[in-house]
Amino acid sequence: VQLVESGGDLVQPGGSLRLSCAASGFTSGVYVIGWFRQAPGKERERVSCINNVNDNTDYADSVKGRFTISRDNAKKTVYLQMNSLKPEDTAVYYCAARYGSICTRPYNYWGQGTQVTVSS
Fold this sequence. Notes:
Layout (H helix, E strand, L loop, with lengths): L1 E5 L3 E2 L5 E8 L6 E8 L6 E7 L5 E3 L7 E6 L4 E6 L8 E9 L9 E2 L3 E5 L2
Parallel strand pairs: 2-11
Antiparallel strand pairs: 1-3, 3-8, 4-5, 4-9, 5-6, 7-8, 9-10, 9-11
């Protein structure tokens, strides 16, 4: 399984970004893709996740109402739309994947990360 993130950038507070995670190499079955982030000096945080078969999603409290995860199965891509960005959203954002449908279990596959910086 390979995951490639894109879309990170420098944006002003209150702005928006959309991150993409292009996935390849999955065999048939159910899998979850999650977005994580890690800021300097902080622990990695799971931001959101979605599976490939239904509309169940999960969000960290810190991003609820501002971030939206979505998927395009035909393109094998998962998106993270980030609105009303705050300086505290600054981090390297990673997408990760695991087989199965449960977001909270450990992920086996990771992308290389994309930098999001929110600053004026």
